[in-house]
Amino acid sequence: MLKRFIGYYRPHIRLFVLDMLASISISLLGMVYPVVTNRMLNNYIPNKAYRAIVISGVVVLALYAIRMFLRYFVQYKGHMVGTRMQAQMRRELFAHLEKLPFSFFDDHETGSIMSRMTNDLFEVSELAHHGPENILTGVVMIGLSFGYLCSLNILLTLIIFACVPLLVWVSLHYRKRMRDAFEARRESTADINAAMESSITGIRVTKAYTNAEREQEKFEVGNARFVEASRLSYKAMGKFFSSTNFITDVFNVIILIAGGLFLYRGSINFGEYSTFIVSVNLFISPVQTLINFMEQWQNGVTGFKRFLEIMDEPEETDSPDAVDIGRVEGRIELRDVRFSYNTDHGVLDGVSLTVEPGRTLALVGPSGGGKTTICHLIPNFYKLEPEDGAILVDGKDIRDVTMESLRRNIGIVQQDVFLFGGSIADNIRYGSPDATDEQVIEAAKLANIHDFVQTLPNGYDTDIGERGVRLSGGQKQRLSIARVFLKDPAILILDEATSALDNTTEVLIQQALDALCRGRTTIVVAHRLSTIRGADEIAVVTGGRITERGTHDELIARDGLYRELYALQFRE
Description:
The protein contains 20 helices and 10 strands. The chain is of the alpha/beta class. The strands form 2 sheets. Strands 6-7-8-3-9-10 form a 6-stranded mixed sheet. A hairpin with an 8-residue loop joins strand 1 and strand 2 (348-355). Helix 2 packs parallel to helix 6 (110-152) and helix 4 (50-98) runs antiparallel to helix 6 (110-152). 31% of the residues are buried.
């Protein structure tokens, strides 16, 4: 893990080296004051060298001015090293998330992922800047101060230094407890973010069902867990800092007692004793810095571990010999396909079917039968193992073609339309980012949304809000259809695209869908059977199997499940 962390410094190595040199220079300049103090107490003041006293003060002031600019550089440029590393990690994490399979997002909440991209990586950036700086300057200062104190009185220095092993033991003793406690708090923070993301996204549903109190109760569960995790982490941190600070306080007591005895015995003079008291902070201060650094170390390491957990998730990958499928005609074949989202429950159990180019296949049946799963498998959103059958497009196994080239040929319109924040034009252009304004308008006309857009003050530049909140359900659906028109795929998947719409809107959308389906291989999932009466073939999917196939009239005549479903919808 450390090797991977160090690797993020490479693009910023020049600025990082300058930051470290500035930090060391600050530490070295910190040695000036006790050295000058020693000379004043033992030489300049007793000898009444007033000119040397003034010159020494001016020199110290000038050096402190230099240290001020060095501190500015460290605080500004040093933090930028951490920020750029954070941006690099976030960039890699986002790119990696874009390549992860659907199954990853089935098991991870959005709020938890967001927490890792923001809170965790901020702690990592703080560690990236302060970590090397604190360690390097701490080690340098401890070494230099130890040498300087030895030059004043080696025996008194060794007495103080004897406390360091005890300090190290206490730090190591509480380090593991702090690490575990802070990791638990990080996880609880991610849970809170996930709960908030879910509640805020569904705020309209909450208000519609007057369930604000229930949402508050759900939030409080995560909030209480956060409080408890924080209590344990701060308890561990309190033990750590109180114990280590007590030991550093013992340093001062030892100096007071041992130094007084040395002065009493005549082993040192008053000037040396005074200088030693001033100089010992050069030793104690970096020790305390390294102790205080432990909290930041725990936060940063925990955040980096959570970052790596996602980065180590396997990406969607093409097979080594995968080829670009090019522009397809649209023939789809499923051969004895079996699939389950987990090992406990199978969703598809030996599904076989064929859809010829330009034809329409409708999938109907009870909820949970496997219709949507078929729609997810055709674009290769979920991987089929070799023993689970095969899906072929134009006679080529989809596992043998690149996912990008396959999905480029497939357009999907779902019941739950997702629109991005931005303008109407931006969302339509998502189907083809390089499309011209004229092509966007033409797609909108084909989707029966152009006339509505023309009524808006800003037209195609109108901002639709988060997830299209300023649009109705039908308008969002037609916008998604326009997006697919612009993509111009050979294969079309309609997953309950007209459900839950009023009759007038459904007519407009059905007209747009009819135009969209023309000349394309189309798979339609529908519960509203009136919308698929004209399909070339209808397959009834139940229990993971295809139990009936045929045209509408053939299935009605067969007097099976399809006729039963149809009769239920049109029983009046």
